[in-house]
Amino acid sequence: MLDYDKEAERYDASRGGEPRAAAAAQAVLNLVPRQARRLLDVACGTGIVTRRIAAGRDGLRVVGADLAPAMAHRAAARLPGAVLLADSRRLPFGAGAFDAVTSVWLLHLAGGAENVRAIVGECARVLRPGGTYVTTVDKGASHNVGSDIDAVLADRPPSTAHDAAHLVEEYAREHGLVPAGTARFTGHGQGRSPRRTVADLRRGWFVTLPPGEPLAEDFAARLAALPDQDRPRPDPVFTLAAFTKSWGRGGNPAAPGGD
Fold it and tell me: What is the pTM of this model?
C-alpha cells in the first residue's frame, strides 16, 4: 500500500494532472442533481478534483475531507477553509448534513469489505434523504486496457476487488441507498508504459507483488523485456456509480461516526 503522505508531492503530476481531474469532476457533476447545494468530497486527496467540482456548479458549496495530512494540506490551498482531516469511516458531520456525497478513487484502497461497508455507511449517514452518493467502482479492472503490459500482469497473484460494482451496490442497499445511474470518464495521462509500470511495482503499487521480493523482480524483468519501454499504452476508463438515499430512512444508526 502506498504512503499517501509521501505521495502527495507527486500525486497530481503522476496521475494525469488537470485533464484527468477535469474529466472526473464533469462526470461527477453529471450525476449530482442540479438542486444539490452542499456536497462532501470524501478522500478529496490534493483537492484537484474537488476544486473543479466546486467551480463547475454555481450555488454548490463543497467541503473536502482526507485522512492524509499532506494531501489535506494541498487540498486546503485549493479550497481555503473548506477542507478538514477525517477518517472516512468516522466522518465528523451530523446525519443528513449534505445533499450529495462523493468518494472518487477511495473504496479500492479501503483494505477490506468491512472498511468498505463502514465508508459507504458513513456516506449514507451524512447524506439527507433524497440525496445522492457518487463513487468510483471497479477501479483496478479499469486499468486493464488489453495491452501487452496487462498480458504480463495477468499472471500475478489475484487480489480481491472490494470496490467491485456488485459489492458496492450490496453495501449501499444495506444503508438505504438505491442505484441511480452510472457515468464513465477517461483517466487522461494514466496510460501505462512498461518502464513506468516497473517503477510503480518497485514502490509498492501492486499489493500482491511486494517490492524487493523475487516474484516482484520476476515481473519487473518481464515488463522490462517489452518493446517501446516509454510509450504509454491506452488510458484507463473509470466508472462512477450513483445512488439515491431512500426517503423515510435515516441511515444505519450502528454505522460509525459522530455528530
Answer: 0.89
